[in-house]
Design a protein that fits this description.
Blueprint lengths: L1 H14 L28 H9 L1 E6 L2 E2 L3 E2 L10 H16 L6 E6 L5 H6 L5 E3 L12 E3 L4 E10 L14 E5 L3 H12 L5 E5 L2 H9 L5 E5 H10 L6 E4 L5 E4 L2 E3 L3 H16 L2 H11 L14 H8 L7
Parallel strand pairs: 1-4, 1-5, 8-9, 8-10
Antiparallel strand pairs: 2-3, 6-13, 7-10, 7-11, 7-12
Helix pairs in contact: 3-8
């Protein structure tokens, strides 16, 4: 009798415990299914995308390998552009898989922040440093890259650091954090540099190449990109210690909570899919889609930033 009661209790208990599907096909169906996120009421950029069917991406034409466009290309491409496409994918998912096309609009260092705040562009996909001063006006995605200011000079110039620029001409790109940093150094150490500013990175590079400037200061990765694109390894060199460190991010409008959540989910999804790491390899460790070899291993700073997203990069 006791054995029968015990057996009945086991049968009742088993009936009340859901069977795990892993017993049959190796998966546990008892776990709650992953739910897609659909906002109950649209606002901000997501509302605009739903109404227009488009997201406007602000791109740079000379920020290789982050965001650039060559004359023969129909659309811009680059490392930052790929991340922005991941954000657009997430926006489409949150609009119940409604197709969202991408429209591109050219911006410069000087115009990019105003383009975002005015609504001219929805995402700015370039080589933009995320800092506290800019966060007063715009919002940023998680970190996409960590760079630092260095100098590009002609080989044989004798310039090894900013201290060697006394009485010489330095070119910077207008509206960049590099411009602000070098002007501060010039004032602080009374270097007597002549600091010229150009509208965008290509014009800055052209001034150096034409001998109108003795050095070009910007983020090291952009300088290596110019050397690679112009096959200038024998004539140009990146020199000096880092003058600043700059963490890049994708810009979007401030005070847009639905967009902020969409950007956050987009990066979490790209991290989970391995897309962040694949994109890094594609642009920095393998020949780029346009044939250049940068061979820049991921930095400790970016590795730590991505680890915060749950990625053990590389």
């Amino acid at each position: 009798m006791h054995k029968l009661l015990a057996l009945a209790a086991i049968v009742i208990l088993a009936a009340n415990v859901p069977a795990k599907a892993e017993d049959m096909i190796g998966q546990d169906l008892t776990a709650a299914p992953k739910q897609d996120y659909f906002p109950l009421e649209l606002s901000g950029t997501l509302l605009k995308a739903n109404q227009t069917g488009a997201i406007i991406i602000g791109y740079r034409d000379a920020s290789f390998p982050f965001s650039f466009k060559r004359p023969e290309q129909a659309e811009p491409q680059g490392y930052a552009i790929e991340f922005c496409k991941g954000v657009v994918d997430e926006i489409s998912r949150e609009l119940h898989d409604k197709p969202v096309r991408i429209d591109y609009r050219l911006v410069t260092s000087d115009t990019r922040i105003a383009a975002v705040t005015s609504g001219e562009v929805d995402l700015e996909c370039g080589s933009t440093t995320a800092n506290r001063e800019r966060e007063k006006q715009v919002s940023f995605s998680p970190v996409t890259y960590v760079a630092g200011t260095k100098l590009l000079v002609k080989r044989g110039s004798g310039i090894r650091s900013y201290k060697d620029l006394q009485g010489k001409t330095l070119v910077v790109t207008a509206g960049t954090t590099n411009e602000a940093a070098l002007r501060q150094l010039n004032d602080k150490y009374h270097l007597g540099m002549t600091i010229a500013s150009a509208p965008d990175h290509q014009q800055s590079y052209d001034m150096l190449a034409a001998g109108k400037a003795d050095a070009f200061a910007t983020d090291d990765v952009l300088l290596y990109g110019f050397i690679a694109r112009n096959h200038a390894q024998k004539t140009l060199a990146v020199v000096g210690d880092f003058i600043t460190y700059d963490a890049y991010g994708i810009m979007f409008r401030k005070d847009d909570p639905l967009m902020a959540e969409a950007v956050k989910r987009a990066f979490a999804t790209m991290a989970e899919q391995g897309r962040l790491v694949r994109t890094y390899r594609r642009w920095f460790l393998q020949p780029t889609p346009t044939g250049e070899n940068l061979n820049l291993p991921i930095s400790l700073q970016l590795t730590e930033a991505w680890r915060a997203l749950g990625i053990d990069a590389f």
